Amino acid sequence: MKTESTVQVLMSTYNGEKYLIQQVESILDQQNIDIQILIRDDGSTDGTLQLIKELARKYPQKIKFYSGKNIGYKRSFMDLLNKASDRCDYYAFADQDDIWKNNKLSIAVDKLNIVKYKYKLYASTVWITDANLKVLYKKDIDNFVNTFGSALSRIRLAGCTYVFNRELLRIVKKIDFKTVKENQRPSHDGMVFTICKAIDGYVYVDKNAYILHRRRNSSVTSGGNGVIKRVKHEYNLTFNSKDNVSFFAEELVSKLSDFIPRDNKLLLEEILNYKKKLKYKIKLLNDKKLDTGMFWANLEAKIRIILGLF
Questions:
Q1: Hey, where are the domains in the chain?
Q2: Residues 151/248, Cβ–Cβ less than 8 Å
Q3: pTM
Q4: What is the pLDDT of residues 174-211, one digit of tens each?
Q5: Sign of the C-alpha dihedral, residues 18, 21, 24, 26?
Q6: Which fold is adopted by the domain 5-225?
Q7: Which of 54, 153, 208, 245 has its CA 20 to 30 A from that of 297?
C-alpha cells in the first residue's frame, strides 16, 4: 500500500561537476518522500555528464537522465517539463549546485496535500550562501503579492523551491514555446507560477527556507552577485524583453481560455489592447492588479507599458 507521495525532481545541468554530487545526495536524502530525479544535461563540456552516468548507475531506481545540445536553462527546463512522468503525485525543480534540507519536500507536500484545489503549487524563500555554503542572508519575501497580475509583472519566487501537482503539470504542457524568441520566452518557473495563478490555482508561499542556495559569479540569477550585475539584470528586464508579457498573455488566451476565470481574462485583454488606444494604456498603467509589492519592479512595469515594451 502506497504511503508516501512520489515527487519527480527535474534538474538541468551545465558544467556543474563541482557541486553536483552533493546536491543530488541532498535530494535523495529527503524524508518521507518517494523520490525520482530526471536530469537533462545541457551540453556540458566538463565532467558533469560522466558524473551523472555514475550517479544513475549507483541509483538506477531513482535517477534517469538524458543529454542534448546547449539550448540554455529556459528551454532545457521546458524540455524536462515535457518529458516529465505523468505518474507522479508532485514535481519539483532543482538547481545543480544547491543543498536541500532533508525536510524540504515533505513540508511542501504536506502543505499541498491538505488543500482540495485541483491545481496547486508550493514555493518558499531560500538561504543565500556563498560558494562555500556560508549563509549570507535569507531572501526577504515578506512583501510578496500572491496574485496573477503580480506574476505577470515580475516573478519573485525561486523556481528551485517549487513543488506542484500532476494536474498543474498537465495544464503547463498545453503551452509550447519552442519557436519563441529568447527575449520573449518566460522562464520555466515563471511559466508554471503564472499559469497556476491564471487558472485560479492555489499557491502556498512559505516564508521559511529549506534550501542553501549558492550564489557564484557564474550563476544565472543576478541576486547576490554584485551591484553591476544587478543593474544590468534590471536594465535587461526593463528594455530588452520586448513584448514578453504581451506574448505570454496571448498564449494564455489562445491555449488556456477555457481554464481562465473572467477577472483574469479581463486583465489579459487590457494587456493585449494597451498599444491600440491611449485609453487602454492609461487603464493598464493604473491597474493595481499589476502590483508586485516592490517599488522598483512596479516602476519598471510602468516604464515598459509607457514605452510599449510590456
A1: 5-225, 236-307
A2: no
A3: 0.93
A4: 998 887 888 888 999 999 999 999 999 999 999 999 99
A5: negative
A6: Spore Coat Polysaccharide Biosynthesis Protein SpsA; Chain A (3.90.550)
A7: 208
